[in-house]
Write a structure and sequence with these properties.
Length: 365
Amino acid sequence: MKKVLFVITLLISISVPQIAKADSVVVLSDQSHRQIDGKFFDDELATSLSYNGRLGQLVFAPPRGARTWQIDAQLIDDVVAMTSDYQLLDGSKGIGKLTAQIWLSQLKSITRGSQIYALPYGNPSGYWIHRLSPHNESYFLTAGVSHLTNFFEREVQPLKAYPSNSYFKLDALTIQAFTDAQAEIQANASFMDPLALDNLHARIASVFNQNLSRELRDFLDLDLATTTRDLNHRIRLAPGRFTVSSSHQKLPITLINDFPASAKVKLSVAALNGKVVVSDVPDQVLPGKGKVQVMIPVEVLTSGSSTLSVSIQSMQGNQLGQTVLYPLQLRVISPVATWITTGAAVVLFFSAVVQSIRRIRKRKN
């Protein structure tokens, strides 16, 4: 009887599929520790990457058995930036160089043979990305994949949706800073180096990481606003003022391009009163890292003062830099005034001739 039961049990164990134990999911993500320009504002990541740190334990002592990894490429980029000598925002030297090198080496080793999924770059809240940047929802997902693929040098799987859709309160300044940043990146995208554009575009989502404290979110908002505002001033007008001494004159205005690539732009020029008429100005091509002097043709109708308003636009109509006002001092006698003065001189001349003739006749009489 025991033999029969043993055989039956053996047959059941063979015929019924075994339920495989689910893989452990290891999530590697952290809030940003760098400004958009790449400078570290703290060195807390060095502690977290150490053997006993939170990120260190996930890599040096991960769960046993089969594992699936979900990794934020922004974290990897931050750690890679630590592998060479780096400085903090206050000028002090970072201490995490060796720690970062060991952690990355262990990460590549421990994930070999495991499935890796890329978190959306910066691991932002899907709720806020959907609300404020719905056209970029897929971009942040694919940016995470491309950055991780470059690091691991093998296939990395994308997530089909944002893992976090948490809602947290944002103030109006944060929303405005993110909205303005997107607009300024779009306006200058065609002039930027593709790698620099990708890095900047990807990092703006870090302000929506759910683990940020309010103070750190405010700090990153300010950094985002400052960086993108500076970006929008890389193509700009040099200031100036002019004295116009003839009725038709060309005023030299300097355009500056700090981007490495050339840029084709158009100028919008207008006088703020009726004393000056401005002719059309052709489109301009600005060399990379260079300047161009553009001659603005003006016609002065009367003396006094006026102001030229000049702005630069991309060929798509996006404004670049700030509108600059150029004060004009108009020291020109207008054609009408010249005609009146000349006419008066002619009248005086003929009056003098008539007077002379009368005197001569009186003497003869």
